[in-house]
Amino acid sequence: MARDLFHDIVRSALEKDGWTITDDPLSIRCGGVDVQIDLGAERLIAAEKAGEKIAVEIKSFASASKISEFHTALGQFINYRFALRTEDPERILYLAVPSLIYNDFFSLPFTQSVVQETKLLLLIYNIETEEIVQWLN
C-alpha cells in the first residue's frame, strides 16, 4: 500500500498536538475484508485511565481532479467508518486534508453540503509548519 504524499507531515502534526501514534497503518479485518487506515493514534486525558482514540485517513488532493480525489476519499471514509464501528467502536475516524485544499475546494457549497450530509470529520493540517490547523466534527 502506497503512503500518501503528506503522510509523514500529518504524523508529525499529530505528535506535535500530543497524540501517540499507535498504528502506522491501522489494519482492520471486517466482514472478510482487510482495510488499512493510514494512522491510528491515542491521547491520554488527564485524570482518566482511558483516552481518546482516533484513526486518520490522509489525503493530499495533489492530482488535477479534486472532485475525483474527493469521491475516492469519501468512499474510503464511509467504508472505514463502518469497519471501525464494527471492530473498534471507540475509535473516531478523521479525514486529513491540507489547509490550502480545505480553504479552496472544501469551501465550495457542493463540498460543504456533502461533508455535512455524510458527517465527514476533518483534520486540517498545514504542510509547511507540520501542524494541525483545525479539527472539524
Short précis:
This protein has about 140 residues and is α/β, with parallel strands linked by helices. Helix content is about 35%, strand content about 35%.
- Through-space gap between termini: 28 Å
Estimated radius of gyration: 15 Å
CATH topology: Trna Endonuclease, Chain: A, domain 1
Name the structural class.
Answer: alpha/beta
Hey, roughly how much beta strand do the residues contain? 25-35%
Number of helices: 4
Q: Compute the number of structural domains.
A: 1
**Mean pLDDT across residues:** 92
What is the CATH architecture assignment?
A: 3-Layer(aba) Sandwich
Helix proportion range: 25-40%
What strand line-up does the widest sheet have?
1-4-5-6-7-8
> Can you write the helix and strand succession as a string?
HEEEEEHEHHEE
Strand count, sense and closure of the main sheet?
6 strands, mixed
Runs in which pLDDT lies below 50 for 5 or more consecutive residues are: none
Question: What would CATH call the class?
Answer: Alpha Beta
Morphology: globular
Q: How many distinct beta strands?
A: 8
